[in-house]
Amino acid sequence: MANVFTLAADRFLGRGEASVAIPPMDGALKPNSAVDKADHLLTIARPDNLLRAGNSVLFSSGRKLLAVSGNWSKPEPVVECEAEILATASGPDGSIAIFDEVRGLSLLDISKRSMVRRNVARLPFASVTAATFRDADTLLVCVGSTRNSVAEWQRDLLESETAGSVWSVDLRNSEAKPIAQGLSYPAGCIVLADGKNALVSESWKNRLVLLDLDQKKAPAPVLTALPGYPGRLSPRAQGGTWLSLFAPRNQLVEFVRRERTYRRAMMAEVPKEFWVAPALSSGASFSEPMQGGALIQMGILKPWAPTRSYGLVVALDDHHSPVASFHSRTGGTRHGLTSTVEYGSGLVVASKGGDEIISIALSDGG
Predict the structure, then answer these.
(1) 18 pLDDT exceeds 90?
(2) Percent of the chain with pLDDT over 70
């Protein structure tokens, strides 16, 4: 009962969970132009799911999985799925796990270019956001929401859903069991060096949590109050983790999330691409909500409008603290950064919103 009164007081006073304040980008998150200045590798529609496989980099584009072994101008097709590829993971034995909405989980033998479907009945495949191998026989899978598919991630955010989960899939018998539930859109995971814990990004709560894979402890926050929505995670060669934040937070969206009547009317009556919501890209239509400052609309100078899309990758140390970051700011085009992988002397980044794959020289971020 006391909690009900506390929530009511917070909503009235605009504090706690009802606050619309956004943490500033400062310190290691101070904005720069590293992403905008990064080397161009490839222009391709909606690139995503970067991973290493031997000496090659694999990535998805829609239903296709492609590979590059040095020549980015000629990516080689590996396999084509029946629906858009949602998540991939590279196993210690060289196999590639692929999730798509129609077939669910398939295991790819990349040397033979053959795929075998695995029937994992309990997993809601349309909502799989990320996957990683714990070992050769165990796959960790993030399910963003059991109420909305991956394509409906903006709806899931605006409705502040907590229907996400992390599952462990035994590849020997295709059995799946949940190891964490009630999460706010888990969108990335990586197994730590001890093999007993995983780092999981909980997008709608703007934080990273430490997950005990043996379920002896509850998920524990280790990095909170991020200025964007955290997504995929990948290992750093120096130790630590790369974190992609696929969209920025802003006060207007936080306000809309708390206004139930307005929010429901907007989602019922307005096309999704014009919602007051974050996006992977912006500026494609004059009908979109504005973003940026000093904009002229209908002959009137608008002094400020909140950012809907942004490009941000953060380097985390072994203690999960930010130590460097790479940005594509409001006026840039390399937004919606969803996936990273170290390759050669650079960090390869997929800009799903900008239809581009780029490479950042790691010295640029210290």
Answers:
(1) no
(2) 90
Question: Whose CA is closest to 209, among 227, 182, 235, 246?
Answer: 182
Check pLDDT > 90 for residue 364: no
The pLDDT confidence band at residue 115, using thresholds 50, 70 and 90, is confident
Instruction: Please give the structure tokens belonging to residue 76.
Output: 């080689």
CA 18 to chain centre: 24
| Exposure letters 263-282 (e unless 16+ CB within 10 A, then b) | beebbeeeeeeebbbbbbbb
- Tell me the per-residue pLDDT of 271-298, one tens digit each, with 9 for 90 and over: 999 999 999 998 877 777 766 655 666 6
User: Are 206 and 185 contacting, i.e. CB atoms less than 8 angstroms apart?
Assistant: no
Q: Which token pair is 110?
A: 């990349």
